[in-house]
Design goal:
The structure is a homodimer.
Chain A (H helix, E strand, L loop, with lengths): L1 E6 L6 H12 L5 E7 L3 E4 L5 E6 L8 E4 L5 H4 L3 H13 L3 E3 L3 H7 L7 E2 L6 H5 L6 E2 L5 E4 L2 E4 L4 H14 L1 H10 L17
Parallel strand pairs in A: 1-2, 1-5, 2-4, 5-6, 6-10, 7-8
Antiparallel strand pairs in A: 3-4, 9-10
């Protein structure tokens, strides 16, 4: 049993966070889901969803970290307190998963430096500008480099989450989860229909 | 501009509600998203997500209604007050969309009687038992009958939401939304990889 700590902030993209939450939530004997924000309290997504969260300080920081993207990242990349706290959590986490422009936040912690990563393709230029020494993949549904899993835009986070579960819990488990939620899983991390090149 | 009223209840399936919310939320000039529950307040999903909602009584009941499924439906199908309130909203709504076992709740209002509908395939027997005079489709990603859109399990709700947008707002709009969230849209309502037959 391990914690999955899902980082939320005002202007997070709903599906970036909650697509993977749906998937990990199907393995309740393996993962405990926590919805967290820097100060706790209610957080509003870009789709007007109000979610109650617990503060970073209150969680078990040895859990897996999931970082969504969204319009809120545009401001947060320049929020040194947030980035510093995110770096502390990411350093302790056994795995860090990002979706969409969540990779821009992680890049700002410098933990992706020299590593392969991807991000969404619509905002690729902006996102990748947050980590000039990251090896950004222009064609990838998701990328794994050590403990870092980074995915392409929004929906790609679900494919990555299943890919992570396949790596950690076994492919049969991932296939069963996808089937249980009737999800047509794009199993190939290299199959990126939205690639820039 | 029209309201999309998303019905939440304890034990709703996260992605049933929030996959479509992601999609409709991309058309902020067309749809206003409201997260509602019978009495308002915080509601907990099956994936431990705590969402703040407004009460049924407080909303504009002429909006489109979206009804997710989830384990919470097992109890609610026998909650006559809830079903009665749901029927009131569904009667007024110009369109009613259900995802997964959300169709079991709608079937209990009798509004699906004699109509074609679908539901998820894993819990097909239970869900369909809630509407013996509904023409349940065993093979369909989603089904449209008049103002009622019913989808198969969990992830199928996203394909249906895009199908609805294609019908109402035009196919180009739906394609653009899918592309914006890098979603590999299963555009064919008849293409159901999880069909029972």
């Amino acid at each position: 049993m391990i914690d999955l700590n899902i980082v939320l902030f005002d202007g997070f993209e709903t599906l970036d966070a909650l697509g993977p939450a749906e998937i990990f939530g199907k393995l309740q004997d393996e993962y405990t889901l926590n919805y967290i924000s820097i100060n706790g309290g209610s957080i509003i997504s870009s789709q007007q969803l109000s979610v109650n969260t617990v503060a970073f300080a209150e969680i078990d920081d040895t859990g897996i970290l999931l970082i969504p993207g969204g319009i809120g990242t545009r401001k947060l990349v320049n929020d040194s307190e947030f980035i510093s706290e995110l770096k502390r959590l990411a350093n302790k986490a056994p795995y860090v998963l990002t979706v969409c422009t969540g990779s821009a936040l992680l890049a700002r912690t410098d933990l992706l430096s020299g590593k392969r990563a991807t991000t969404n393709k619509v905002a690729f230029e902006w996102a990748s500008s947050n980590g000039l020494d990251v090896k950004w993949a222009k064609k990838a549904r998701w990328v794994v480099d050590g403990k870092y899993y980074t995915s392409s835009g929004v929906s790609a986070g679900m494919d990555m989450a299943l890919g992570f579960i396949s790596d950690i819990n076994g492919n049969e488990t991932a296939v069963a989860v996808a089937r249980g939620i009737e999800y047509i899983w794009n199993t190939d991390a290299r199959n990126d229909p939205f690639a820039l090149e």
